[in-house]
Please model this.
Amino acid sequence: MIKFLDLHKINLPYQTAFQEKMQQVLDKGWFVLGEEVQAFEQQFAQYTKAKHCIGVGNGLDAMVLIFKAYIELGLLQKGDEIIAPANTYIASILAVLQADLTPVLIEPDAETYNLNPNEIEAKITAKTKGILVVHLYGQLADMEAISKIGLQHNLLIVEDAAQAQGLPFTGNHARAFSFYPGKNLGALGDAGCITTDDSELAKVLFALRNYGSEQKYYNEYLGVNSRLDEIQAAFLTVKLPHLDKENALRKSIAQRYLTEIKNPKISLPKCDDFQKHVFHLFVIRTANRTNLQEYLKQNGIETLIHYPLPPHQQKALPDWNSLSYPITEAIHREVLSLPMSPVLTPEEVSHIIQMLNRF
Ligand SMILES: Cc1ncc(COP(=O)(O)O)c(C=O)c1O
Model:
């Protein structure tokens, strides 16, 4: 069986280095907010060309804390409206809700699946104070157009870069990253971080992740406990230097899928510029998804669906269930994610392509 994602194989080349790091952390006997977290924060800031990096517990917390920090700074107020994509993973929406802000959903571009900038202005009201941009599947959203709208309407822009480690980011926006094990840069457990050039924001974030405290036992804010731990930070510093090489391998697999899959029943994702995609996921569309997924399984290929049900149709959000987002709903009915990772072999990729072409 070709696994959708073989996390054992992905982490195998780093095992010796992980064990050495693990031993170093054990020898130091310091497990929370120490030298390893600081080292990773410094290296990831440098890698993303950001002034500050704040390690946190996971990608969801990274986003929640950005919004909470803006509230502490007086730039957002509870109840403010945040434009957010209807077509995203639920975490993006939960982050807005957990910060007591109001998500206003908009439809994606039907070809890139990312926020459609042309849909934004119609949803802006006097209460709109921000835009949450998600770089879905690892593809850079149309930041030029979105930033322009943000500037015109004086809106904060927050980027959900959970699926997008390695993209060439531009613009002075706070970004949230997830290092969930399956991400392009994955830890061996939950982990996340925030990057920003804004020193005031960074200062609040460093406190918020640690009970709202800058100085131990003195609390400026009502914070949370969401700290990146030393062991995960140490593992991430082992993997970070290899991220670009691994993303290049993902791109070469995507290149093969895009040129060699030829089946009128299957739509391929649109990617005009390989600089703007890190192929966290390679997502095709088909009207016969159930059949295709079952056929691929019979032929030894595991696939997943990202995602089967959009946020507005989830049971957890009953007030939204009657809303209609036809583009988002069609995407959720038809998408199927093919195996995509730096450890897929050329033979495995050939088999996947051959089977798709025979479907
Ligand atoms: C688009 C998106 N946003 C946010 C998250 C949340 O990240 P985490 O699982 O680390 O909380 C994820 C991943 O799980 C994601 O894919």
About this structure: The first strand starts at residue 52 and ends at 56.
